[in-house]
Give the backbone structure.
Amino acid sequence: MRLLRIIVVLLLAVTGVYYLLETNDFLEEDSIENSSQVLEQKDNKLESKEIPETRTTVPLEGSTYQWMNKSTSELTENFGEPQRKDLSAYGYEWWVYTDGGEQLIQFGIDDNQVKSIYALGNDLSIEPAEIGQAYDSTSEAFSFSSDVTYSKDLSSYTFKLSDEELQERPLVKVTDNIFLQLYFDTFTNELSAIRMLSADILLLHQPYELHYRGELPENANFTDEQWAQVEEGAEQQIFQITNVLRSQYGKSALEWDDAVSKVAYQHSEDMAENNYFSHYSQNGDGLKERLAAQEVFYQSAGENIAAQYPDAQAALHGWLNSEGHREALLRDDFTHLGIGVHRFYYTQNFLKK
């Protein structure tokens, strides 16, 4: 029986397993079911990736509704050029604006028009609600329902929300063709982010059980090069959203780490290509071995994984509402973060250096 010089915290959740590994006393490996790998304390001499300087504020005032269906020329006139333009997994383009810490907004652009908006952070208004508003008062304002319908020509669609989905991310029909997703922190019961999207994009994402009569829009058919663009954009979005969330909860920002991101990407790629979902590769390697292979040194480390969420934003809010994953997202002493996305598999590797 092998002895491990650790105390292991193991927490299971729908989105995967978060595990934290730190040096401590001897424990027998077999005494902890599905235990994680050992991560030893060492010095780290790796350099962090430089993130481009961003604007100090996002000039979003009043209701976000006004930006739906507006042209890209109107968007740049009011917001300026975005920090990034990221291809989404559904063919439209994300224009990303952020102050680098307290606020982020992404505009989904299709055919030179705003067809989706994702936003979180301070001073973002979605009247009659606002970020940080309590669930009960938001529910009263929007009248949440488990059945949300949409019709177009001879086609009809009904989105069926479970009780859990009603608590975590209810769906509201704003107009005949515009919908609103509200992402709640189920630990505080407060609104943490919002997403507005056209009916066509909602049907592409299919984030809820769907009953329909008629046709569904077809997803984009990407080349490997285009998928690489999608994945790189999703990684940066998860990085920035993680830091905005940490700011909202009074936590320090994490630094991007290239070497750790490579470790995270290789694990996401391996899970996707070999059709499994685990912190352990099929050869038995865990986070300890993956970090060692890239000569990454640390004091402690943790990992979040998720799969088959429609996009990075959805995966991240899934982590936020899972106790173990939330612990990693908001842990005080983590200092660096690496992110790897391959298709619809997502990996976050956190380090304390």
In short: DSSP finds nine helices and 18 strands in the chain.
